[in-house]
Automatic annotation (TrEMBL):
Protein name listed in UniProt: PHB/PHA accumulation regulator DNA-binding domain protein
UniProt-recorded Gene Ontology molecular function terms: DNA binding
PHA accumulation regulator DNA-binding N-terminal domain mapped to chain residues: 9-69
Keyword DNA-binding listed: yes
GO biological process, one term: regulation of DNA-templated transcription
Length: 180
């Protein structure tokens, strides 16, 4: 999310209904949870008093998910959170939790980057398989199982062989870059 992007403003009316100021419609807690899952920051304010109710509603979303059996927070963590409200640790816990979740987000991003970097490798393997089929076809002049097309005249086979050599050299260069 861009830092200049403002949080989505949700206004709570006296009737406790929640109003999305961007789309001019009413939303539910589940809608707000969806905005957050999509990466949006939200701010929920009381229309009459102007009080920031964001924390209260986020805690309500967490409590609803936990009560539905979508448990993310182990009992021991919940117990420690309750204890932290009654000890001197209250001042340290918010920074610790924020740092822990920041590390979690960073490691999750790195994991996604690693998974995405494997995608070009899969494409390279597919290209290599196609090149091997074409190479065998060019060398033997025969049909390779799974390969398409008919037998080509010898002159075309030589052109195919040259093309395969060039593609193989390109592929070797790409693979050497991936190893670095």
């Amino acid at each position: 999310m861009a830092e200049s992007e403002k949080p989505l403003l949700i206004k709570r009316y006296a009737s406790r209904r929640l109003y999305n100021t961007e789309t001019s419609d009413y939303v539910t807690l589940e809608d707000i949870a969806g905005f957050i899952r999509d990466g949006r920051e939200v701010q929920i304010v009381d229309l009459k008093s102007g009080d920031d109710l964001t924390r209260q509603y986020l805690l309500q979303i967490v409590a609803e998910h936990e009560s539905k059996g979508e448990s993310v927070l182990p009992i021991s963590v919940l117990t420690d959170l309750v204890r932290s409200y009654t000890t001197q640790a209250t001042s340290v816990v918010p920074q610790f939790l924020a740092a822990s979740f920041e590390m979690f987000r960073d490691s999750q991003s790195k994991w996604l980057e690693n998974v995405n970097s494997m995608n070009p490798m899969a494409k390279s393997l597919e290209a290599m398989q196609a090149q091997q089929e074409a190479f065998l076809k060019a060398m033997t002049g025969a049909r390779v199982p799974g390969a398409e097309g008919e037998k080509k005249p010898a002159a075309e086979g030589k052109d195919d062989l040259d093309a395969i050599k060039r593609q193989l050299a390109d592929l070797q260069r790409k693979l050497s870059k991936l190893d670095k």
